[in-house]
Amino acid sequence: MRHNLETHPVAGRVDDLNARYKHHSAHDVLKRALTDDQVGRIAMVSSFGAESVVLLHMVSVINPDIPVLFIDTQMLFQETLDYQLEVSKHLGLTNVQVIRASDAALAADDPDGTLNQRDTDACCHLRKTVPLENALGGYDAWITGRKRFQGATRAALDFFENEGDIRIKVNPLAHWDPQDIQDYIVNNRLPRHPLVAQGYPSIGCAPCTSKVAPGEDPRAGRWRDTQKEECGIHFINGKVVRGPLPKEDPVEEALPMNTIVTDEGFASDDWSGEFVALEGLSEDNAVALDLPSDADPTVLQGKLDGIDMIRVDFPSFADGRGFTLARCLRLMGFHGRLRARGHVIADQYAMARRSGFDEVEITPEMAERQPWDQWKARSNWQSHDYQSRLRGSA
Ligand code: SF4
């Protein structure tokens, strides 16, 4: 019998669904979400980006008639528009709905299509958030491809989320990691977005997406050189978030960062010396140095021999500059201890080690959220790459 959703608050249904499907697979969660009366009318939202084909394939196997909402910002790559048609046909999806900002809204707020150059938050709001909110008005739930590994703000992501006491958000891939995604695409012989092979591991609008260099964070090419990380169509703790997600969790920030991750496991910090900032560096105190991720390494030319330890700050998991900085320091001949400190997640450990870091420093809270077994999988970092896995050598 169909639940009367009006008399069953979203929060209670979400708790119930998470309790019931806690130990189920992504496929099971998706299947039940598409049929469970407690979820109600449901649509999938897809960008037809680099990894979207995984969830689209799962949906097509269960029910190819489910509405799939595709937000066309009218700023997308032509390759994405072509890929959307190709994938929809390949998977037999029968109900893909293209969502766009209205002509009136575009004429009023972005008549010449240059808003993205002045105010990306406003542009995303106009071209993504508002059209999506309007489209979701007729649904009780929507399916997203968000995953825990995508950052600290998603580290505790559940399968079912309460979206502002209005709708349920379903995240079937919450527990998947990048390798699971790659394996699924390969094993099911799914078509790849053509731009992935051209250096775009994360694909958004053309004006706001650039190529990513080997070793950089996969999302480093999104809104490059800005503080923006998200388009603002997401919701945190049940509240609509307009504009970018908060850069830092203030509670997390206040905690001491004293859990050290190495190839051997978690340890407490054995470094008791003082750290100096770049501005305070002198020949007398050059023992341990704190560097921001955007530091210019060339200012350390000729000074590295006197430094025993360098700690590079990672203000956000999506800020890949720290990896580049580490590589530069090693190329310049720095042989001391190199530590990545802050918002580094387990999935980035192999990249951190390959970039030249010896260790990672995180808060006890982050260590609790991502226990050692999640880091351990990457501690064999020399062989932790996709090609070696395919060869069976990892
Ligand atoms: S990603 Fe860029 S072009 Fe696309 S909607 Fe946002 S600001 Fe505008």
UniProtKB/TrEMBL annotation:
Protein name, per record: Adenosine 5'-phosphosulfate reductase
GO biological process, one term: hydrogen sulfide biosynthetic process
Binding positions for [4Fe-4S] cluster per the UniProt entry: 123-124, 205, 208
Pfam family, any one: PAPS_reduct
Active site: 231
Annotated source species: Actibacterium mucosum KCTC 23349
Cofactor note: Binds 1 [4Fe-4S] cluster per subunit.
Predominant subcellular localization, coarse grouping: cytoplasm
GO annotation, cellular component aspect: cytoplasm
Similarity comment: Belongs to the PAPS reductase family. CysH subfamily.
